[in-house]
Amino acid sequence: MDEARPLPWRTLAIFFVPFAALAAATGLQRWFEGSAPAGDPLLRWLLFASVAGLLVGGITGLVLGRTRGERYGWTLLGVLGPWLATVVVTGVLLGARNVQERWATHQLMECHASGRSFCKEAEFRGACAAAASRDFGLRDAARRRLGVPSGKKCDQARCESQWSYDGPWGAEESTTTQVCSLITDATGNGARSMMLAGDEH
């Protein structure tokens, strides 16, 4: 039976040291500055992380360092590691945001090319509000743009019509289906409209 491989402590410590320093810096900053720090809290958080990293890296060097140079290396990682980790994480987040924005732009172009009535949530919301306008011209134009309702219920006193918007969405918009609900009397007058999230209707 093969013996279990030992954990790669040195490799794990390379990631542990900077993130342990960042975690410790959160507590230090809250202790020294309170829950509402003034000025630039991010910069001071990184400075606190460097101080904490000096201690974390130094202890790690004593445990894992085989030579004096390695021990100094772990200490240096503790000081500079939080800054490097922050740069890497920020770069990943900015890259993901850029991809998201490019995808949103691509979907918007495809929507315009397909000739759909609405390619932005704001346009759909505007048409929903206009569909209940007292201005007959504005109201009729909005209802024509909304098209055939996806659902309609009528009784003797009123009718409720619904249209839905499923995207495309902007990079920072929620992707929850939006529903326009228009309530009128039996003749189509006395209208009022409301916007609902997809799971509310």
Q: Walk across the major sheet and give the strand order.
A: 1-2-3-4
Q: Which class of secondary structure composition applies to the elements?
A: alpha+beta
The helix/strand series, from N terminus to C terminus, equals: HHHHHEEEE
**First-last Cα distance:** 61 Å
Integer tally of domains: 2
The proportion of residues forming helix, as a percent range, comes to 55-70%
Give me the Rg, rounded: 29 Å
The averaged pLDDT comes out at 83
How are the SSEs ordered, and which strands pair?
Elements: H1 9-33, H2 41-64, H3 68-114, H4 121-130, H5 136-146, E1 151-154, E2 158-165, E3 178-185, E4 192-197
Antiparallel strand pairs: 1-2, 2-3, 3-4
Helix pairs in contact: 1-2, 1-3, 2-3, 4-5
Descriptive notes:
The chain contains five helices and four strands. With 201 residues, the chain is of the alpha+beta class. The chain has two domains: 9-111, no CATH class; 121-197. Strands 1-2-3-4 form a four-stranded antiparallel beta sheet, covered by helices on one side. A hairpin with a 3-residue loop joins strand 1 and strand 2. Helix 1 packs antiparallel against helix 2, helix 2 (41-64) crosses helix 3 (68-114) and helix 4 crosses helix 5. The protein is elongated and about 90 Å long. The mean pLDDT is 83.
